[in-house]
Amino acid sequence: DYKHFFAVGACGEEGADQYVYQHFNTLCVVGLAPSHAALAGGRKVVEVDFQTGKTNKLDTNKVSGKKKSGAIFLTEEGRLCDVVCDDGSRHKIRSCIRGHLLELNERLKEEPGLLNTKPGTEGFVAVIQPKREEEKSVCGALLTQELYLSRFPPE
């Protein structure tokens, strides 16, 4: 079972709305909220770019073992990828929470449309493990599902 949290305007970027679903084991799944600009106005995601800069090599992140050695530590502003839409717009996707990157959804390279068709399940962007001492508070700055839905009621 997951607790649903939302970052509205991640890193101060208008329309950069993302979800963070936290499992009871504290792992967090990050993706695009229904109100994200990349999903608004009938836009379709046509590309997911995990190579977002000269120093960003997140897609070569190799995590192994019980202690998840080799996992890259990200801050809330850590850039996971960029998504490109059919209208040419490009959107930065952030981690929204502090923690170790365990997985990027590699399927999105071949099937970027999953962000439109199954954003809350198969279209997730990343799995992040918060630091043990921050497990309970890592989502504290995010909106609860109730607050998010009050601001962005389903259509």
Question: How would you describe what is shown here?
Answer:
This protein is mainly beta and 155 residues long. The chain has helices at 107-110, 114-117, 145-151, and strands at residues 2-7, 18-23, 28-32, 45-49, 72-74, 79-85, 90-94, 99-104, 126-129, 143-144. The strands form 2 sheets. A 7-stranded antiparallel β-sheet has the order 5-8-9-3-2-1-10. A 3-stranded antiparallel β-sheet has the order 4-6-7. A hairpin with a 4-residue loop joins strand 6 and strand 7 (90-94). It is globular. The two termini are 25 Å apart. The mean pLDDT is 89. Belongs to the ABITRAM family.
What is shown here, in short?
By secondary structure, this protein is mainly beta. 10% of the residues lie in helices and 32% in strands. The longest helix is centred in the last third of the chain and has 7 residues, at 145-151.
Keywords:
single chain, 155 residues, mainly beta, three-stranded antiparallel β-sheet, Single_hybrid_motif, Protein Abitram
| Amino- and carboxy-terminal Cα gap | 25 Å
- How many helices? The count is 3
State the CATH topology.
Answer: OB fold (Dihydrolipoamide Acetyltransferase, E2P)
Mean pLDDT: 89
Overall number of strands: 10
Task: Provide the CATH top-level class.
Answer: Mainly Beta
Order of helices and strands: EEEEEEEEHHEEH
The secondary-structure class comes to mainly beta
Biggest beta sheet summary: 7 strands, antiparallel
The Rg value, from CA coordinates, equals 15 Å
Please state the second-level CATH architecture: Beta Barrel
The percentage of residues in β strands lies in 25-35%
Regions with pLDDT < 50 over 5+ consecutive residues? none
Query: Strand order within the widest sheet?
Result: 5-8-9-3-2-1-10
What is the total domain count? 1
CATH 4th-level superfamily = RNA polymerase II/Efflux pump adaptor protein, barrel-sandwich hybrid domain
Helix proportion range: under 10%
